[in-house]
Write a structure and sequence with these properties.
The protein has about 190 residues and is α/β, with parallel strands linked by helices. The protein has a single domain, classed as P-loop containing nucleotide triphosphate hydrolases (Rossmann fold, 3-Layer(aba) Sandwich), CATH 3.40.50.300. Helix 1 crosses helix 9. The two termini are about 15 Å apart. It binds adenosine monophosphate.
């Protein structure tokens, strides 16, 4: 079993790279953003709780996010491996993920951070907004989401770096080339 965390700011290309990684390695994809969007779209009790928070561009509280993630892990006992996309976004989430992995006698084997500058992130999100029309990507939320990343989520990186689990990949440029750089890290170990 191989488990991977794909890390990076909103608009860094995590979704695109996740699709390619799933195709090549057969990961079960766990995107907490996609899960929250599913819940809000289907107006579930969880969706009702997080709708306003998501619409503001803020992070959903750890307690809610971690519980949803645990449920998703429990739904996939046969998984060959998980690809976590958009999770963890805080140190308590990273710690909870390690605990869940340990409880299943496994671990997070790779943490790959896509490095993209704030300016590039803003350009990419603006482009994606015109293509996908994602509700959480409206103009007024953009600053908040980027701020959440650069003030809160970024602190997850030292957590993994101190444990020598962090790999960084330059996230700007050709999609195929970025993918090859990620695959090289995975295949090397
Ligand atoms: P994403 O598509 O990953 O950018 O997620 C969209 C939104 O869902 C975020 O702006 C947050 O409101 C919420 N969200 C997704 N993942 C998390 C997480 N790990 N922790 C807290 N909030 C999250």
């Amino acid at each position: 079993m191989i488990n991977l965390v794909l890390f990076g700011p909103p608009g860094a290309g995590k979704g695109t790279q996740s699709e390619k990684l799933i195709q090549k390695y057969g990961f079960v994809h766990i995107s907490t953003g996609d899960l929250f969007r599913w819940h809000t779209k289907n107006d579930t009790p969880l969706g009702k709780r997080v709708k306003e928070i998501m619409n503001s561009g803020a992070l959903v509280p750890d307690e809610i996010t971690i519980a949803m993630l645990k449920e998703e892990l429990d739904k996939n006992p046969q998984a060959k491996g998980f690809l976590f996309d958009g999770f963890p976004r805080t140190v308590p989430q990273a710690e909870a993920l390690d605990k869940f992995m340990q409880a299943n006698n496994t671990a997070i084997h790779y943490v790959i951070a896509l490095e993209v500058t704030e300016e590039e992130v803003r350009n990419r999100i603006a482009k994606r907004r015109t293509i996908e029309n994602r509700v959480d990507d409206e103009e007024e939320k953009l600053n908040k989401r980027i701020t959440e990343y650069f003030t809160k989520t970024i602190h997850v990186l030292p957590y993994y770096k101190n444990q020598r689990r962090l790999n960084t990949v330059h996230g700007i440029g050709d999609i195929g080339e970025i993918f090859n750089n990620i695959a090289t890290i995975i295949d090397k170990k």
